[in-house]
Prior knowledge:
Layout: H1 2-30, H2 44-70, E1 78-80, E2 83-85, H3 87-119
Antiparallel strand pairs: 1-2
Helix pairs in contact: 1-2, 1-3, 2-3
Amino acid sequence: MITATLLFLLMLALVFFSVRERIKLRASRFRSHKSWELEPRATPLSEAVFQLVGIAGGIYLSLIMLFTFLEVSLPNKIELGGIEVEPLAAFAIGLAIAQPFAVRLWAVFLRMFRSRGKEV
Length: 120
């Protein structure tokens, strides 16, 4: 019971940090100089959640097509801390959660690589 609760809280924290990172990446596009607009607009939070779900769904569909094409059999459900989930869906949401952190690490890597190239 405690393991399931801790796993759930860990997943919730990871989703929170992933969404927060997505908000930071997209916040600059949200700023508008037209404060009188009455049209509804998406907030950085709604765009980040929409993007998280969209990326996870795209990864999931791609994995389903790949595993169907290769005729790989997977278990219908796996148990993670007392919660039964579909393995490909869990993997897809995990990759979608990790994606903004990977983008940031890649940017840091490129920045370090470029700065070392200038020193030589």
